[in-house]
Amino acid sequence: MIPETLRKELDLLIDAGDLNAVEDFMVEHFKEMPREMQGRLLTNWFSESVEREQNKRKLQEEGLVALEKLLKIKEELSKSE
Amino acid sequence: MKLEKLYRRGPDAHAEQAKKALLDPITDEPIELGEHDRKMSDILDNGSEEDRFLQYLGSFKSAGAAKLAHALMERATLSTTDKALLDGVLLKYNPDRARIEKVQDAIDDDEMFEEILRLSPRIRQVTRQADKEQIVEIFKAEIERLGLKNQQPFAKLVKQLKTVHQTLERPDVASINDSIADALAKSGVAADKYDEILTSGVTASTRAEFTKAAAEQMTTWESMTNFFFKYADKRGSALYGTALEKERLTAECDRYIKMVANTLARTITPEIQQKIDRYEIYGEEIKLDNRNVKTLRDMKNTQTQVSSRREQQARESRYRQYRAEEARKIGKAANALDPGEIDTIRNGFAAQESEELNKRHRGSGILAALLSLLFEPADIRKTIEHI
């Protein structure tokens, strides 16, 4: 269970609605968090980062195909001059 | 899975399952049961292994599982049916334990851990204050917790770890950045765009553009290139009807090349990636589906709702029902339970309630973790201790 003092601080940050501050707080006090909470934070951060990487990869692969097609089209257009 | 379903499969099906090749969930390589080839007596003689087995048994949603767990804890004499059920669970438990351990081993791998650090700026930050060994141990404990629950979040985590492992194993995937750099060089617009992107910084619209790209831009790119390509196949003057048309097509082509190159440049430029990372960390919006808590304000509202009088009354009612059912399972009336039994029942209810609340109010990332803090079993237990 999270120490009461930290929980009060966290409640204040949540009330203020500042996600940056909450994230920073969780990182700063990571070692003081209960073990299970630490585990959940790590796996959640990991999952988010993998999803982000997968989105980026999809963007890269499909963007690369699109770019190569466009370059070929431009080449064809210039040939016809 | 229902416990009874395991039983209905019968001994032949169990033996069949036991013969099935056991694969490492991350590498897909065959593995052996090894030390996980346990008999029930081995488990009951080892306190921590017994805890794991009981936790695993708890993942079977049925009255039979709870009754069996209770009988095991009490070291009661088991009926023939109970023994058969237990044999079925054991045949599944042992290989699952071996698989969980392999998933834990993946985190222990230096190369894999470095890749996780590269991917997650937040994990990088906490690794600066807690040493790597501690982080790995916490990760492994969470893998075990999720694995013993044997539900969807574990399957998702395994799939993601497998993806990271495959990326490390496949140099062709890693080399996509080189292909992009080549294509950008050919596009002839990327170089001057780099400076513009770097000096302008990452704005909300940049991020929106970035995260929505897969869903929206891809569709645009796809239809746009297909349209052009249809004509490009004809070659030469067939591409366009008039000089004006050609001019329009060339301008359109340049516009799209710039758009695609611009976005791709961001994905391979380290400075830009860092800015995006920072934006991902400090962004105010979090990717969601309809069931998720969207913002801290939503979470606060959820907290208020959950602690409201009405919710409290509903919880008390659920607890009374739960207590009556648990008492019935051990053949007692609810008002005849001893303090130890009441304590166990309260803990069981608080854990179940916590899990249900977490399922109802899912968030992502930091919010998910905060919600689990909000619905901690210990806090829920406090609200029913007067009953």
Name the beta content range of chain B: under 5%
Report the biggest beta sheet of chain B as strand number plus sense, adding barrel if it closes.
none
Spans where pLDDT lies below 50 across 5 or more residues of chain B: 190-218, 279-290
| Rg result of chain A | 23 Å
The number of helical segments of chain A is 3
Distance between the termini of chain A: 74 Å
User: Overall pLDDT of chain A, averaged?
Assistant: 82
Assess the beta-strand content of chain A as a share of residues: under 5%
- Overall domain count of chain B: 3
Structural class estimated from helices and strands of chain B: mainly alpha
Q: Please, what is the average pLDDT of chain B?
A: 76
Listing every helix as H and every strand as E from the N terminus to the C terminus, the arrangement of chain A reads HHH
Poorly predicted runs of chain A are: none
Key terms:
heterodimer; A: about 80 residues; mainly alpha; 3 helices; elongated; B: about 375 residues; 3 domains; 21 helices; about 75% helix
Write the layout of secondary structure elements.
The complex is a heterodimer of chains A (81) and B (387).
Chain A: H1 4-16, H2 19-28, H3 35-79
Chain B: H1 3-8, H2 10-19, H3 40-44, H4 47-57, H5 63-73, H6 80-108, H7 110-119, H8 121-129, H9 132-149, H10 152-169, H11 171-174, H12 176-187, H13 190-200, H14 204-232, H15 243-268, H16 270-282, H17 296-306, H18 309-329, H19 339-360, H20 366-374, H21 377-382
Helix pairs in contact in B: 2-6, 6-9, 7-8, 9-10, 12-15, 13-15, 18-19
